[in-house]
């Protein structure tokens, strides 16, 4: 039977049948790549070389994941076609595939031997610096391996346990070099032992896909995480010039010890004291412990005069300001940004109450969902989204420090910090429960994370109004998915406009509560 080619897919029809190879497959476990599986990501390619991104949601992983193996060719039907994501796109295509409980997957019978295998869009080494801090599309490169380091353990501020890293040096035909840093499982999986013979010293060409360009201490480098894949000596036209150049040549690949230089977010193990809010409220800000302190509190209410999200610069992580259809950092002029949490709330430990703010990853662990997921489900008329309102009455042990505003006002406020290395065993168990709460949120399970007893939260209530004038919901999709007049989906530009309008109802997202 004839199959639909990937470029013909669009959301207006539901009756598609495709024959495609699984070119890549990986698990998405959140921004820090150490949480439960949120969804499984795929890059599919048809017999003419057209590619599309596909996603298996958390609810279908158990049923659909075993049916699809990387490199396999399958006939697929009864899936949904939706607008492509606007960030972290492995394929530059307008639409993506979403698998559902009704999706049918069967191995293809007698597929042609010429069925394409690789999906890539190469970026020259000299152009890579232009993409530093950008996260719209993943970057693909090809080069010759010149150096491979050992793996090393690095403790990052946004992770509770050390992560593995490895550095690889690549060069192009113009002898321009770039450093590739692999993280986590990708770092441990990388090896050239099966492809490289030290006695023969035959040069190794590598195609690396699914990277982002980042910078540290003035040095720009490629960063490869779960989405990163590589292919040694690939059979693609772009590799032929390399093969012609290195023919009959030898190249010794350096094996180096892991660098001891730490990334910008690295934390060393520190000791912090347990404090009560009553003691902190009476403490002079200049006497506050330099390394912060730790306290166990219950969130009693939200600060509704401050936005719960902000646009964060991809380079310096500072708050961006609206700039046309997007945002721009006034500090480094970068136009690359991502939305992050900025949860402002009042917390109580039984001795006193105080205002606190949780940014980024700490906010994600509190809410249990990525910020983009909450934004997509937010209706303009709601004062506070239900997912944000649900954090009231939850109890946490936080590491905290003073906000800058506390040095100018008699009323103190505190910023929560990522998990410290020397947390007690009980805090470690809480971190595990955070991850469990993240997983349960996909199945709609009710989150019960260190809740106080019912008596402790009887007086804590929060209400959120439903709009009678607007049912529009936010989405990062580039095009509307529905023509319904009652609940139209918003484009990315309209999403930014709506967010800017929404943020005008609050104080500036750049400020602490």
Question: Descriptors for this entry?
Answer:
9 helices; seven-stranded mixed β-sheet; 23 strands; disordered C terminus; 14% helix; 513 residues; alpha+beta; five-stranded mixed beta barrel
What does it look like?
The structure is a single chain. 14% of the residues lie in helices and 31% in strands. The chain is α+β, with helices and mostly antiparallel strands and 513 residues long. The chain is globular and about 75 Å long. It starts with 16 loop residues before the first strand and ends in a 10-residue tail after the last helix.
Q: What is the straight-line distance between the termini?
A: 61 Å
Mean pLDDT: 80
Radius of gyration: 25 Å
Q: Helix count?
A: 9
Q: Based on CA inertia axes, which overall geometry fits?
A: globular
Q: Summarize the main sheet.
A: 7 strands, mixed
Class by alpha and beta content:
alpha+beta
**Low-pLDDT segments:** 261-269, 420-490, 505-513
Question: Could you estimate the helical fraction of the residues in percent?
Answer: 10-25%
Strand arrangement, major sheet: 5-6-3-2-1-4-7
Task: Count every beta strand, where a strand is a DSSP E run of 2 or more residues.
Answer: 23
Percent of residues in beta strands: 25-35%
Overview in brief:
This protein is of the alpha+beta class and 513 residues long.
SSE layout:
Elements: E1 17-28, E2 39-45, E3 51-57, H1 61-64, E4 73-77, E5 80-83, E6 95-98, E7 104-107, E8 139-149, E9 152-154, E10 163-171, E11 177-183, H2 184-189, E12 205-216, E13 219-232, H3 240-246, E14 254-256, E15 273-274, H4 277-281, E16 293-302, E17 309-313, E18 321-323, E19 326-328, E20 337-348, E21 353-359, H5 360-367, H6 371-376, H7 386-389, E22 395-402, E23 413-417, H8 425-442, H9 492-503
Parallel strand pairs: 3-6, 8-14, 11-13, 15-16, 21-23
Antiparallel strand pairs: 1-2, 1-4, 2-3, 4-7, 5-6, 8-10, 8-12, 9-10, 10-11, 12-13, 16-20, 16-22, 17-20, 18-19, 20-21, 22-23
């Amino acid at each position: 039977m004839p199959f639909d080619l990937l470029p013909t897919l669009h959301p207006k029809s539901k009756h598609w049948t495709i024959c495609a190879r699984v070119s890549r497959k990986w698990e998405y476990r959140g921004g820090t790549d150490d949480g439960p599986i949120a969804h499984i990501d795929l890059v599919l390619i048809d017999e003419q070389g057209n590619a599309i991104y596909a996603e298996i949601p958390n609810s279908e992983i158990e049923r659909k994941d075993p049916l699809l193996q990387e490199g396999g060719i399958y006939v697929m039907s009864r899936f949904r076609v939706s607008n492509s994501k606007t960030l972290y796109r492995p394929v530059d295509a307008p639409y993506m595939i979403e698998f559902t409980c009704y999706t049918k997957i069967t191995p293809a019978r007698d597929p042609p031997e010429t069925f394409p295998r690789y999906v890539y869009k190469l970026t020259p080494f000299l152009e890579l610096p232009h993409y530093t801090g950008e996260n719209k599309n993943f970057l693909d490169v090809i080069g010759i391996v010149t150096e491979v380091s050992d793996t090393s353990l690095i403790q990052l501020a946004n992770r509770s346990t050390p992560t593995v890293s490895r550095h690889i040096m690549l060069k192009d035909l113009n002898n321009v070099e770039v450093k590739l840093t692999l993280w986590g499982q990708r770092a441990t999986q990388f090896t050239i032992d099966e492809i490289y013979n030290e006695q023969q010293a035959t040069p190794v060409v590598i195609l690396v896909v699914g990277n982002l360009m980042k910078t540290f201490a003035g040095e720009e480098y490629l960063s490869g995480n779960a989405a990163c894949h590589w292919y040694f000596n690939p059979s693609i036209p772009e590799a032929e010039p390399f093969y012609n150049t290195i023919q009959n040549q030898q190249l010794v690949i350096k094996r180096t010890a892991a660098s001891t230089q730490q990334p910008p977010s690295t934390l060393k193990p520190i000791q912090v004291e347990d404090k009560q809010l009553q003691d902190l409220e009476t403490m002079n800000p200049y006497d506050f412990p330099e390394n912060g302190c730790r306290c166990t509190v219950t969130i009693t209410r939200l600060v509704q005069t401050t936005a719960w999200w902000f646009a964060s610069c991809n380079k310096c992580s500072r708050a961006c300001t609206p700039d046309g259809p997007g945002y721009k950092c006034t500090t480094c002029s970068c136009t690359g940004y991502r939305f992050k949490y900025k949860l402002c709330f009042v917390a109580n430990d039984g001795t006193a109450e105080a205002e606190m703010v949780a940014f980024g990853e700490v906010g994600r662990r509190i809410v249990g969902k990525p910020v983009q997921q909450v934004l997509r489900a937010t209706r303009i008329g709601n004062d506070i989204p239900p997912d944000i309102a649900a954090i009231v009455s939850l109890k946490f042990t936080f590491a905290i420090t003073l906000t800058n505003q506390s040095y100018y006002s008699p009323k103190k406020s505190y910023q929560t910090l990522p998990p410290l290395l020397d947390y007690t065993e009980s805090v470690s168990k809480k971190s595990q429960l955070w991850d469990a709460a993240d997983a349960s949120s996909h199945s709609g399970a009710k989150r019960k994370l260190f809740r106080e007893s019912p008596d402790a939260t009887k007086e804590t209530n929060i209400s959120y109004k439903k709009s009678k004038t607007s049912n529009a919901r936010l989405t990062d999709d580039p095009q509307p998915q529905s023509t319904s007049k009652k609940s139209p989906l918003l484009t990315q530009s309209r999403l930014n406009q709506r967010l800017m309008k929404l943020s005008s109802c609050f104080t500036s997202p750049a400020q602490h509560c």
